[in-house]
Amino acid sequence: MTTAIHAAPREWTRLHPVSPFLGAWSVFGAIGAYWFFQNAPEWLGGGGEELGGGWHPAIITLALLGLLIAALVVAGGYVSWRMTTFRITDDSVELRKGVLYRQSKQARLDRLQAVDVVQPLLARVFGFAAVKVEVAGGEGSTVALEYLRLADADALRNEILALAAGVKAVRKGDAAAVATGASAPPPSLRDVILGEPQGVPAVAAAAERDVLVVPLGRLLGSIALSGAFLWLAAIPLIAVVVVLVVSSDVEHMLLAVIGGSLASVIPVLFGVVGFTWSRLAAGFGFVAGISADGVRLRHGMLETRRQTVPPGRVQAVELRQPLLWRRRDWWRISVNVAGYQADEANVSTLLPVGTRADALAALWLVLPDLGDPDPEGTISLAMSGTGVDGGFTASPRSARWFDPMQWRHRGVRATDTALLIRRGLLVRELVVVPHERIQSMGLAQGPLQRAADVATVVVHSTPGPVSPVAQHLAVGDAFALIEQQAVRARESRRRQTPEQWLATVVPALDDVLAGDDVTVAPASGGRDE
């Protein structure tokens, strides 16, 4: 068997035969764990009096039942695998699956938003991966090819990105067809199972340059300073203080408070553990880089994910700084990408945590040209300024009556290429929306806002964690912003090619990475995959 990697077949081809079982392992594991904990006390330890020292009929029955279920699962998995096929054309990725109910999905490459190579834990152990093709089209538009050998998944990702960029691959079968007038035969079952070559060598991966890394210590520190741990510790402390202040029978009240605190802390503890694990698992080993294909992101602890977001597919960017991160000047960056859904926070993170310089470098990855003569100064003022600092249009003083804490920190500004929205006092937020990615805009005004002669401007973006909303602007400023943005959006519709994007992003990054505060990836990180 050869280990050479070859291009994706143009004929309908099946996924790897282990695919049905890799996708269902968690269900079998849960069933096995449930059976073990329900029955282990009866037979663990060699059998007690109840078992009579021999094989208990119940165990034999369960074993036979397990074999029957396993046989049915194998048969069902085989049928499911036989009925699942995919192919790659110059224009789309197509998937057909289903036994009783047939489904056919197509991801058009001209609507491509991202290509991810995902390795859940079990697939990672055995060297398999899924390729998820995200396209603009709302919920359910993702085409997931689960599962392929890791090397084949990488080759498939490279080819999809190349085709989306307009590269037309020439296959050995195509060349033979030109010479003989015949079409290439479809790959055999043996070739698919053993991973034998099915065409000419695959499209080479675009050279990749690693730009940013997130150290584990910083990631753990950001989680500890997220506020969840403080809330967990505050519940029993507040209860004890209340008892000491209002109760004369301190001993009995403390016992009651301890019991009540435990009852209240346990659900909070589960939430904190879930939050902590999700942030740690998603941010572990985070590396951001660039290639001609677009922005490359690698991260994950148990489930690893390698994302590729082509140039110009990021719809909106949010730089966020919680209060407890302010002393270290850490920032988190999230993005809206068409195709990713609003609840997919793990795949919508451009930077889990980083310094201000890291945040600037990450922003230049997706928006290398801010359209401002002093981009770093403008973004710095946008991140921490107030009022009209940095040329922002701020909320009027009339907004202080119903927004006394934050009105000074709200504002908007438009550069030649993007709209900046600043907001937040305790949690600082800066939203950046490229003009050409603005789908539409709206104006909202509640009764209190009408009394104060202010309004809210809503920028309509794709679903995601970023909400581009500019609140409490003067009505005149709000109307002017909507009219001016309509003109800017029309003028910015010209699509930027990958070559133009890369030519712009590299010098912008070089300027930022020259600073001492950037967590730069090691020099060996740049590579050809």
Automatic annotation (TrEMBL):
InterPro entries: UCP026631 (IPR014529), YdbS-like_PH (IPR005182). Keywords: Membrane, Transmembrane, Transmembrane helix. It comes from the Bacteria. The keyword Transmembrane helix applies. The chain crosses the membrane at residues 21-37, 57-79, 228-247, 253-277. Residues 81-160, 290-341, 407-482 form the YdbS-like PH domain. PANTHER family: UPF0699 TRANSMEMBRANE PROTEIN YDBS, UPF0699 TRANSMEMBRANE PROTEIN YDBT. This is PH domain-containing protein. The lineage of its organism: Bacteria, Bacillati, Actinomycetota, Actinomycetes, Micrococcales.
